[in-house]
Amino acid sequence: MKGTKSFPSSFLIMEASVLIDKVKAVIDPLLAEDQSYFCVQIKVKPTNNIKVFLDGDNGLPIERCTFFNRKLYKAIEEEAWFPEGDFSLEVSSPGVDEPLLLQRQYQKNKGRKVLVTMNDGVEKEGQLLEVGEQEITLEWTEGKGKKALQQQMQIQYENIKSTIVQVQF
Prior knowledge:
There is one protein chain. This protein has 169 residues and is of the alpha+beta class. The protein is built from three helices and eight strands, in the order αββαβαβββββ. It has helices at 16-33, 62-78, 103-108, and strands at 37-45, 49-56, 88-92, 113-118, 123-131, 135-142, 149-156, 160-165.
């Protein structure tokens, strides 16, 4: 019977991992020009929505987001990744509620209050005191008044499920 078999959707849209690699190939040289900025994560949704999360050692001004967005958008259009032009592109910094993913993000947030959730579900909140190659050091106060004690704990990255900076007002 004609027309009863479905056409594999993988032939219709570019595979997300291929698209992520192509985005990296464009964005990495741009980031290399000013090494104070770095790529945190690239996400691609099936609707061809490309989200590029960048960060900077001293923050990421909106002007730099606009610069990276324009360069990447131009490359996508010139290379005709989506012949019909059916895509959307967002370049931004990760939100304040997004977990830290890279050691460089941990380094940038040294001295700030963080909530670390371990793989076993245990949560520790404290100041991000040190950032090493394999672990972080967290410091917090237990008890109150004269009985208050400063506690420290080293946590291996491999034991961390997520770390979220705690915004204080």
